[in-house]
Amino acid sequence: MNSIRNQVQLIGHLGKNPELKTFENDKHMVKFSLATNENYKDQNGEKQTITQWHNVIAWGKTAEHIYNMTQKGSEVAIQGKLTYRQYKDDNGTEKYITEVVAQEFFKISGKES
What are phi and psi of 104, to 5 degrees? Predict the structure, then answer.
């Protein structure tokens, strides 16, 4: 049961091209925004769509695969976990960020580079 305590699965479209960063020891991290849509009918029977934006990061080989295989508009499925972090901006204001750390990735469709 521990494996399902903090698990996220999302299918959506990249909102922009993924950004790759390289750290010491050639460790890679990629970050991107992922849009997921939920459709429903309002009280008048008209179709409505709610779009949620998710901050996603990935490390290592997963990061490299995402960076090399996707771009803005690509549809992907990811499985990972939620993480939270905080930092102080240049004005000293405390900022909080929620991110999905993608551990598995599958490209569903998208533009070829």
Answer: -135, 150
Q: Give the domain range for residue 68.
A: 2-109
Question: What's the total number of domains in the chain?
Answer: 1
Read off the pTM.
Answer: 0.85
Which conformational region is residue 64 in: left (phi greater than 0), alpha (psi within -120 to 50 degrees), or beta? alpha
Q: What is the spatial distance between Cα 40 and Cα 32, in angstroms, rounded to a whole number?
A: 26
* CATH number for position 64: 2.40.50.140
Q: How far is CA 18 from CA 33, 38, 50, 80, in A?
A: 8, 23, 23, 17
**pLDDT > 80? residue 1:** no
